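How it folds
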Amino acid sequence: MDGDQTARFIFLALLGGAIAGGYLVQHRKKMGKVAQQAAVWALIFLGAIAAVGLWGDIRDDIMPRQTAFAGGITEVPRQRDGHFYLTLDVNGQAIEFLVDTGATQVVLTQSDADRVGIDVANLAFLGTAYTANGPVDVASVRLNTVALGEMEDTDIRALVNKGELDQSLLGMSYLDLFERIEITGDALILTR
């Protein structure tokens, strides 16, 4: 821990001690009940710590991710919000995309574009994309590499959105590289 973290820890420990001490003094005649409540809060605290610690192990059961199979087949599970999300390796960086068959191009948020090495500050936002929220300025870029598992494509055309965009979009310019796209139950199946 650095100095700031140590100071915060000491402050929180003193604050917690003062609150606990005040509570104990106020309820000193009911110590059995206080001990019972303290035990319940300790169990809640330990349960929260365990949940955070185990999140990495149970995350795929709760929110499953894409699975690549032999033969160029990728299965993408539908998420709780009803959408399909696909994580691609773009210029060496893992970027999560919302699969959007209504989008003509791959569209990057400005932060994702920056993560993959695009100098967003010097882009010329000369194009216009017409979205459900109205027109937005976009800049045309080329992505050196886009990889999905062992499948790697080069020189992929994409757009960088100048407006507010929560999630990068995986549009038809990339999806057209697949021989077959199908939705079966709660899974999107992409076949090369």
